[in-house]
Every structure is written in structure tokens, then in C-alpha cells.
Write a structure and sequence with these properties.
The complex is a heterodimer of chains A (272) and B (268).
Chain A (H helix, E strand, L loop, with lengths): L15 H25 L1 H7 L1 H17 L9 H18 L2 H10 L2 H6 L5 H29 L8 H29 L2 H17 L12 H8 L2 H14 L5 H27 L1
Helix pairs in contact in A: 1-7, 3-4, 4-7, 4-8, 4-11, 5-8, 5-9, 7-8, 7-12, 8-9, 8-11, 8-12, 11-12
Chain B lengths: L4 E10 L2 E11 L4 E5 L6 H8 L10 E3 L2 E2 L4 H7 E4 L11 H11 L4 H14 L15 H13 L5 E5 L7 H18 L2 E6 L2 H7 L2 E6 L2 E6 L1 H6 L9 H9 L10 H14 L1
Parallel strand pairs in B: 3-8, 3-9, 6-7, 7-8
Antiparallel strand pairs in B: 1-2, 1-4, 4-5, 9-10
Helix pairs in contact in B: 3-4, 3-5, 4-5, 5-6
Chain lengths: 272, 268
Amino acid sequence: MSARLDALPLASADTWGASLRMLFARVGAMCLVELQKMRRDKAELLFRCVQPALWLLVFGVTFTKIKAIPTGDVPYLDYLTPGVIAQSALFISIFYGIQIIWDRDAGILAKLMVTPTPRAALVTGKAFAAGMRALSQVVVVMVLSALLGVTLTHNPLRLLGVVAAVLLGSAFFCCLSIIIAGLVLSRDRMMGIGQAIMMPLFFASNALYPVALMPGWLQAINHANPLSYQVEALRGLLIGSPARLWLDFGVLIASAAVAIGVASALLNRLAK
Amino acid sequence: MTAAVSVRGLRYAFGDTVAVDGIDLDVEPGEIFGLLGPNGAGKTTTIRAITTLLPVPRDTVSVFGIDVRRRRIAVRRLIGYVPQMLSADGALTGRENVSLFARLYDVPRRERSARVDEAIAAMGLTEAAERPAGTYSGGMVRRLELAQALVSSPQLLVLDEPTIGLDPVARAGVWERIAQVRRETGMTVLVTTHYMDEAEQSCDRVALMHRGHVRAVGTPAELIASLDAAGPANLDDVFRVYAGDDWHEETKGLGNVRQTRRTAARLG
């Protein structure tokens, strides 16, 4: 090791190009860690499939039969599938704040924060790592829905769009969770708040029913809820429903960027 | 010669509790420097200021001449850090834990694998490298953390209470590895401990901290000799002289209370 004492460059990321390279390298490192953990924890992957499976098999199949929710020409199960994908990603990401507090308590966060990694890169890495975990759910939901007769797109470009929508949505909700963690600083409180906001976010979106069916006040909340834009994008890409993809992706990118910024600013509070 | 670590008038308070109260310190390149003192003395706060974890005013702390406020990322590239808690990720293998830090420190891809192997071997963990760190003993986790800190070949290794909570054999093993690394690389080591016997045996120089102040600095031999004691003396005796008889009283600051609660919650 002695010969390498001076091997590392002292220069920090002084240019935009170097900063971007560093950001991608850090995000890659964090995503790799998440994949390594997922590979070892197959039981968790299996248990996480239960909830989306119930939504599709019980809720979806039943409501398709009783035709209680008007979705035009689109069968309700087809309509619901993108919503269940978004819901699975939300449920995974919204509890990442608990993991950050755990990392803080275990000293892992302090160790990461002493590496030459800007706070924003650390948070972005965590955010996209949440997306990696959410993508495993996407595969499960798509296989299940295919078995139930839902016709989803096979277009590789559209599927790439699905991956992007899931990653961006997960990044936003993961950062929202880190922001809450940075404010409450306790795992128990974080767990309570996570539970408290998860279902309202889900029900105040277009995941289960069309926006037109909502009362006015709920429609207003729906328009401010990034989950709705994620669902609309997924629905447009997967089943070809009318979607404003530019707006949807614009909102998802902007909300993820703002959330990454705020979460990065609060990371120091967690490290104290 | 530029000091490895230079601290000038560092003061840090958590609310109304002053953790560090205007301390000055110089750590010379290549030495093992011990920051000693009871819980609440301000050791960990000092370490966290040096490692960029706490915001400090400009020109109060520098590492190899680089100001920690102005050029945080550059300072972090020089530092390998082992925190007080056993902090390896139990869900990852030993190798994956070390590889992560090789990536985060931008160890070039073509060298990465060899460097990871080298760091793991230096800490005597080659056989356990493919096992999840969650199956390691406390001493092994500490050595794994040393491997994580060393994989980037830092110029300054910062260890916060590296032997706390370990059994005597594991403690001896950790110090052996630290001494070996210093011998082979000439790396500067800054270590905090409240075990005076370990500091006496392993540190080139020590600073005695108490209630946020540095009470004395010197080699263990110099400090013991300065006592002019009639019989055999040690660093414990030195500390009693400088800090008074209350040093065993736990003058725990907010940080310790918070940390103890977190650890209790984590361990259930």
C-alpha cells in the first residue's frame, strides 16, 4: 500500500464534466450495493410481491367484474395495472428515510459523508437505489398482469420510458422520505409519518380511479401529487391511454430534482 | 513542514453545551497521535470537525495545509475514517463493503480489484471476505472497517475509539494492524481513545482533553516524566493531575446521550 500513498488526485470535481462523472459514478456505486443486497435477500422480494398481487388479483379482478369504476373502453384491470406499479414503487421508496436513520444510528452515514462524495450525489445515489428496488416490483406486476390477460406494450422504447418513470417517481418519494427523516430524526416517528402519508398519496392520485370521478378538492390535490403524473405516464406508455408525456416527465424530473436538493440540504442535520 | 492536521482556536457548541472550547492542536505527518479523555471531553467533536462532518469557521482546521471549510472534497480524499460504532453493512460481504469504498474514493477501475484484495489481506480477512459482514465478530468488523478506510491509501487515518466494546484479544489485534499500516506506509494516524494503557503503548504523542479543553500535549514518556512522581506512574496518573480527580465522572455531553439512546434503540 505504501507506494500508493500519493496515488489519488487531490483535485476535486472542479468542472461540470468531472462533477457529472462523479455523480454517475456515485449513483452507480449505490445502485450496485442495492442490487447486491437484493440478490441476497430473496425472501424480501417475495414478500413484497404479496401486496401488488392482492391489488391485482382481489381488487382488480373484483372491480373488473362488477364494473363499478367507469374507465371507458379500457378494462379496469388494464387501467389498474400501471397504478399498482406506481403504488409498489411508492410503498418501497417512502420508507427509505427509515433506512437513512438506521444508517445514521449505525455510523454508516457518517462514514459515507466523509468520502469525497457531495451530499447531492449521496442522496441521488440513494434515490436511484430505491428505484432499482422498485423495478424488481415492476417485473413482478407485469408478469402477473400478463397472466391475468392484461395487454401491455412490448415496445422497447416504451418499456424504457416505464423504467424512467419508475426511477424518477421512486427518486422523488425516496427523497421526500429522507426530507421527513431529516426533520423528525427518529425511526419511530418516521415510521408513523410514512404510514400516515402513504395511503393519502395513493388515494389522492389517479392510480385507482379516473380523476373525473373525484370531488373538486381531491382533484386539486391530485394535480399537485407527483404520483398522478407517474401513473399517467405509465398508463400512456404501457396501455396506450391518452397521456401528456412531456408534462408528466417534466413534473417527475422537476419534483425529483427539488426533492434531491432539499434532502441534500437536510443530510447534515442527520449527521450531527 | 506542513502539519498533517492543524487546529487553531476550534470552538463548537451543541445548543448551550460547549463541546470544544477554543482548542489548538498540531499533528505531525507520519505520527500516531492520540486524543485522550473521558466521555464528553470533546474528542469526537474534534474528530468530526477534522473529518468535515461538522461545519467549522474558515482557517480553524486544516489537513495537510488544506482548509476543511474551503475545500471539503479535497480534504476528504486525504482521509480514511473509522467511526466509533461498528458500522460495516451487515447485508454485504466483506469484499462488497470494501469495494463500495474503493468506488466512492474513485480508485481507478483497473486497480480496484487488486487494491480491495490488498486491503482485505492486510487486515487478515481474506478467508472471510465472501461472507456477509453480519456474520463477523466485533474485532473482525473493526478490521473490515480499517480495510474500508485504507483501500483508498489515505494520507490521514482517523479512528474514533477504534477498540471500544472489543475484548482484549480483539483490541490488541486492532492496534497491531494500525501499527503495521503505519510501519509499512508512513501514514499519519489520529486516534481517540479513553483507554490510557493503549495510548501509552501505541501513540507517539498524545493530547489530553477534558471538558472541551486540551490540558496537555506530549509523548507519553514526557508527560509521565513531567509528573516527577516518587513511584511508577502512567498516563492515568498524568490525567488525574491535569484534569483533577473528577475525570472518571462521566461528563457526558449531548452527543453521548443521543448516541447511547440511538445504540439502545438499534440493538432493541
